[in-house]
Amino acid sequence: MKLSLAFASLLAVPAMVAAKTYFKETFDDKSWESRWVQSTHKEDYGKFKVSPGKFYADKKGSRGLQTSEDAKFYALTAPFDEVLDNSDKPLVVQFTVKFEQNIDCGGGYVKLLPPGTDPKTVHGETPYNIMFGPDICGSSKKTHVILNHDGKNHDNTEQFLPLSDQLTHLHRLTLNPDGTYEILNDEEKHNGTIFNHWNILPPKKIKDPKASKPEDWVDKEFIADPEDTKPSDWDDAPEYIADPDAKKPEDWDDDMDGEWEVPKIKNPDYKGEWKAKQIKNPNYKGPWVHPEIDNPEYKEDASIGKYKSAYIAFDLWQVKSGTIFDDIIVTDSVEEAEAFAKETFLKKQPKEKAEKDKLDEEERKKMEAEAAKAAKEAEEKEKEEKAKEKEEEKEEVEAQEAEEAKEEEEGHDEL
Q: Ranges of Acidic residues compositional bias (predicted)?
């Protein structure tokens, strides 16, 4: 009996749903070339190359997809293993970006594309479900999360600043079926609901167009005291008076300088403009609040933020190339994405930072050596120029002396 009860209770426990990964990419070998498709929509798309960059934690493990040509559009697409439908499960997109070139203007984001997309024709106007990642141009910096709904793209209204130094940083977006979301930039998290931070639907409430503030509504809280009067001697003191310490300069000449006038100073007894003291307005009703009504254009839409996605794509512009994308995962589990980050990004991060510091120190020493060399060369050149000037002055003096001696000799001959 006990065994059958135990067996029955086991059956009652809901089965655990295994996490599913729809796409994963590390660019650690040449197999990436068979997955990613270059768009032919434009003839002059920039070329991607695989590289760990100038500094890295591991030459193979740090290899990523790097933009290699300046002032170019880039368009590269790869398919998922199967279509991801996030209507009843989380959607998790995670990847790393390294702006090794110290980016001045360009995108560092990815796009998720719907089924039926032709990877060979992907371009800037190709419809997409989600665009996620950093976008930087001058002082304008933002982590975009653009959601498509009914053919229109809607960017997040919250300002999530991306990390834009030259190190590798992790970016993760999670969309949940209940409309909640989370954005992760390394360790910094932002979360909320799609309905609060995207203006996709019209507002639930609007100001009642038939209501207006009553004409007799008093919203001025304080007024001048009608019983307060200005003192009779208030304006007796002028604002400026002659400076009592000023004296006519001894060297002042009325004929030359004009009539001397005593300079003016601010009168310490001047009281300024008189204003009646303020008292509480007895008729004050407080600020008028425009009444609201239900927006007739508002309609609940449970499909917002829910998509069928089949591709991931890089579709971006870069002024200065050098951005490296790596360690991409698209899954339905945050735990799966976190585990992947531990295997890749978090394992490499400390050593990469150490290598960057080492490279910076080498660059600093190199610049100091070049500056010292340039200063020494400049000093030697200055010495040479001074020696040359001195020699030229000597030659000029000798020539002048010779000329004077010649003239003196010719004078003696004439005598």
A: 392-415
Task: For residue 65, count CB atoms less than 10 angstroms from its CB and return exposed for 0-12, middle for 13-18, buried for 19 or more.
Answer: buried
- Please report where in the chains the tokens 């070998």 appear, as a residue: 29
Q: How confident is the model over 382-415, as pLDDT tens digits?
A: 888 888 888 888 888 888 888 878 777 777 766 6
Residue 240 annotated in ligand binding: no
By CB neighbour count within 10 A (0-12 exposed, 13-18 middle, 19+ buried), where does 85 fall?
A: middle
What value does the mean pLDDT of the chain take? 90
109 is known to lie in a ligand binding site: yes
Does 236 carry a binding-site annotation?
Answer: no
**pTM, entire model:** 0.72
Closest CA to 191 of 168, 218, 158: 158
Beta strands in 68-187 (DSSP E): 72-85, 91-99, 105-107, 110-113, 130-137, 140-149, 152-154, 168-175, 180-185
On whether the CB atoms of residues 275 and 230 are closer than 8 A, the answer is no
Instruction: Give the contacts of 64 (CB within 8 A, at least 6 positions apart).
Output: 27, 50, 51, 52, 53, 96, 98, 324, 325, 326, 327
* CATH of range 19-202+305-360; options 3.40.228.10, 3.40.50.2000, 2.60.120.200, 3.60.20.10: 2.60.120.200
Residue pLDDT, tens place only, 297-337? 999 898 999 999 999 999 999 999 999 999 999 999 999 99
Domain regions of the chain by residue span: 19-202+305-360
